[in-house]
Fold this sequence. Notes:
Blueprint: H1 2-6, E1 8-12, H2 25-29, H3 35-57, H4 61-87, H5 98-109, H6 121-139, H7 143-166, H8 175-185, H9 198-203, E2 214-218
Parallel strand pairs: 1-2
Helix pairs in contact: 3-7, 4-7, 6-7
Amino acid sequence: MEDQEKKIKAIVYPNTKSPRLFKNKFLEFLTKTHPIIIIVMYTIVSYFLVSYYRQSTGASIGNTAGLFLIGLFSWTLGEYLLHRFLYHKIGDASYDSGIHYLFHGIHHEYPNDISRTVLPPVPSLIIAAILFSLFYLAMGIYAFVVGPGFLIGYSLYMYLHYMVHKRKPLKKWDFWWRHHNIHHFQQHDRAFGVSSSLWDHVFGTMPEKGRKTVDIIMKRKNKEN
């Protein structure tokens, strides 16, 4: 009965492209991207950062690889925290207004518009710059190799998220599809991990079988919209 009282209604347009966010064509262009652009962008950035680290410190390949893997793993936690506390409102995990809608709500409302499954380069770079600055303050020169690991982890996550919404599930590897679809269509306050469910286990946000906190209303947009 408690779950029933908390249940909310959410309108979803499953096979419709999302509406314009800005009247200005250039600003609107900046709101959409393809994951390959993100992957190439951060691969190049990571290459130069790691090269600078090795030239500055003379670190071995083993040392560099170890720190890179730490950064790669740390992304799984970053992914969880960003999704849970930035993309969704902290109190009720909603996403229907303000920055939450711009960053993530529009994706929930138009989940199969693949042009909006990936955070565009400009806001992505701003967030990356802020996080790198924090890494540098915390660990100094090591940020130049831990940071790239984090960025590549982010890039892989972006591509996986894109594939989950673009492709049908792989028969033997459908966990990502099942876990993420629960977040979209059954329990908005659970299953925040996309590339890994590790932190959902750690922080107690794994989906509960048979639980549903949202009623999805599927709609098609009218031609005039």
